[in-house]
Specification:
- The protein is mostly helical and 322 residues long.
- It has one domain.
- It contains 13 helices and no strands.
- The longest helix is centred in the middle third of the chain and has 49 residues.
Length: 322
């Protein structure tokens, strides 16, 4: 490791950014909270969420911190086809849920959860198994996002990792408890617009700053034959195939996707799923290009670091920019 460090923001700046983000989401929640809503409104927004908000919420739900890190790492490990084998199959899994979701919505139009449908069709034991699985999965996802937020805050500010986790957890809890599911999907909409905007702006800027497209020629020697092959068998067997199996098993019983399925207007289910598929794929594959970028630039791995490619890329960009 050389002595170059990431540029850090001041504590005041970080606090102001957190207040701006979570304060804004809480204001949205507060406006929603003034409406008188029953349990249906709190859990599924009355089954009347529109197309844009539903598609954005489904996209943001499927994109979690680990998927962004994993896509970048896949790009660094397997080369140009790595992010595609991660993002494409993950995106198609959203589309794969569509026919099952449409059938579930048809037989249980006013349901709130998959576990509720499972209880009605197969009894309490099946409901308990699915609910338990969803709780464990949600906790893993939540912890992963909290950890990613804590790491990011600790890297870019004077605050510690634990303080960062507390900030993120408190902010999410605040607006979610205040107004339930409707607040969650609206804040998802804001977040996915920000993520897509970042992909559109930051990735081209990163390629420009680091000397691309010339670096494709000068950095080609850093790639192995498999890493430079768009149809790499290594990428498919080690990334694509296992991910297909894993996500197929996970997607059908995923309550976060199902809850959005129950919330969207029934006539908008198909376009919502198609748009979420495209949005997820574009965002995750785009972020995975950071790993490919690091590979072409010949940036070495950081020993003992699991989120190597994203952090290597950030460090290199800071050096080139500043």
């Amino acid at each position: 490791m050389d002595s170059t460090e990431l540029v850090q923001l001041s504590a005041v700046t970080v606090v102001l950014l957190l207040i701006l983000f979570y304060g804004g989401t809480f204001l949205i929640s507060a406006r929603i909270g003034k409406k008188n809503e029953n349990a249906d409104g709190y859990m599924t927004a009355g089954n009347k969420i529109g197309f844009g908000v539903s598609a954005a919420s489904m996209t943001a739900t499927w994109i979690w911190a680990s998927s962004l890190y994993a896509s970048a790492t896949s790009g660094y490990t397997y080369g140009i086809s790595g992010p595609i084998h991660y993002g494409l199959w993950g995106a198609l899994m959203i589309l794969f849920i569509y026919p099952f979701g449409k059938r579930i919505r048809a037989v249980a139009p006013k349901a709130h959860t998959l576990a509720e449908v499972m209880h009605a069709r197969h009894g309490a034991s099946s409901q308990l198994m699915l609910a338990g699985s969803n709780v464990v999965g949600s906790l893993i996802s939540l912890m992963s996002n909290f950890i990613a937020g804590g790491v990011l805050i600790s890297m870019l500010s004077p605050f510690s990792f634990v303080q960062g986790v507390v900030f993120i957890a408190a902010g999410v809890l605040l607006y979610t408890l205040w107004s339930g599911f409707r607040a969650s999907v609206l804040t998802d909409f804001v977040q996915v617009v920000a993520m897509l905007g970042a992909v559109v702006v930051i990735i081209p800027a990163a390629f420009f700053i680091t000397g691309f497209p010339d670096a494709f020629e000068t950095g080609a020697s850093n790639l192995t034959e498999q890493q430079s092959n768009f149809f790499s068998s290594d990428a498919f067997l080690n990334q694509g195939a296992p991910y297909i199996a894993a996500v197929l098993a996970y997607a059908i019983g995923n309550q976060t996707i199902a809850q959005r399925l129950f919330a969207v207007r029934e006539d908008l289910i198909k376009p919502t799923f198609i748009t979420a598929t495209v949005g997820y794929g574009a965002t995750v594959i785009g972020v995975g290009m950071f790993g490919v970028l690091a590979l072409y630039l010949g940036i070495d791995r950081w020993t003992g670091t699991s989120t190597t490619s994203s952090r290597k890329w950030s460090r290199h960009i800071c050096r080139r920019s500043w």
